[in-house]
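Entry for the shared binder. Reason: the reviewer on the internal report wants the predicted structure included alongside the sequence.
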Amino acid sequence: MNAQLLENARNAYRAGDFAQAAQLFAAAKQPGEAAGEADHLRGNSLMRLGLFRDAAIAYGEALADASYGRRGALLTNQGKAYAASGDFASAQASFQAATQDASYATPYKAYLGLGDALLESGDPTNAGVAFRQAAIDGTNPAPALALAKLGACFLKIGRAQDAAESYRTAVDYAGPQDDTRSIQAGLGQALAACGRPQDAVDAFQRATSDGLYQLTAEEAASFQSAQDALSTSRSMAPVADAPLTPAVDPLDPLGKSGQFMPDPSDTGFFTLSESEMIQQDKVQQKVRRKHNHTGLKVFLTIFVLLVIVAGGLAFAYTRGFGYPSQQSSLTGLFTAVTDGSSTDEYLASGLSDDAKAVITSTIPQGATPAIEGMDQSMTESTATVKVTLSKGGTQTYEVGFVREGLGWRVSSVTVDLSGNGSDATGTTTNSTKTDTGSAATDASAADTAATDGASSTDTAATTDGTAATTGTSN
């Protein structure tokens, strides 16, 4: 391995010159040499250039280097390259192999790709099984995308009631990075197919209320059908919408396993304190009806409002919200580095002066950061950040935050050497990084997204975790 050429290739990759990077990564190898890192990043570069078949071959060469590891990430990337080139059979084989890698940290990405490839091959039943696996994978921080795709599979196989439940669950799990408008449109289709025209019209109206989302031809036809059915029912005797029957597990068509997805309350989306507040409010309403005293009404009203406000603040705190937010602290830090002003108010107080100096030296001047994915808890957060450089290029970072008081401060900044991006669902992929506390370059490149800022739909180069026809790389 030619170390100088390899370093030049890395520099070209960081600068966004993927054509030069691909050539240099290839030139850095000796004939017949196994070089996992060079082939992995060469594959990522080729994906960025739209050379999907060549990228699949490069990932295959990286897989031949047993010492490099990262088999699951490489197979997932290879599957996306095959899918982007239209070879869905090969894509399925690669994705399926990736799910068998016990060391792969984020198998949901392989399941998402497998589901998309199966859909493209006309197998919605097995595609639904794959999407379900992606949704229930504990490493998936944003399962709404997989749930919505599962709902689409249910619709295709004629299980409209299960589709409606899947879309409803997707709405419950949806985060800021998810397209709730498309989920609502899918829910509208499912409800219309269930014979619930009023609920279907309501869902379609929520999808189109801001004027941004355009219904597909199928969705528009379903919307019109629901409106026609509603108009007919209003001109006749009132007819109640048909009730939904319980959903079943797609892996268990007879429904013996119970619910196909855990209730959102099991994962902390609805807290016990909120349930207690609702129950307490019902009790207090009975008391007010029994004892119609003005003073008691005022007291109870104030009390309930205080409890709700306190509960809401506590809920927001546990979900990782704070002031200043992660984005505000990150933007302030980049601005301070550019202006040459003090960065102490944006950096964790527990960092040493040397650690702070390493972080600030890692940040390019004149750059603009934007958080694309977030894995957050009550006290710590890790974000995937896309940085637009002053000269027009982009670079991906992984930034750590710690809670200090009510707000967030930066605790670490790591450069992602493999051009990682966020998937449509905002997940942070495994990636090749440069440690901010060391001058040496970590050569890992696992699970880095091959594209940056692409669509979450079936395009040729989207970020990790999107449709199987994407050109995303880990």
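Summary line for the report: The two ends are 23 Å apart (CA to CA).
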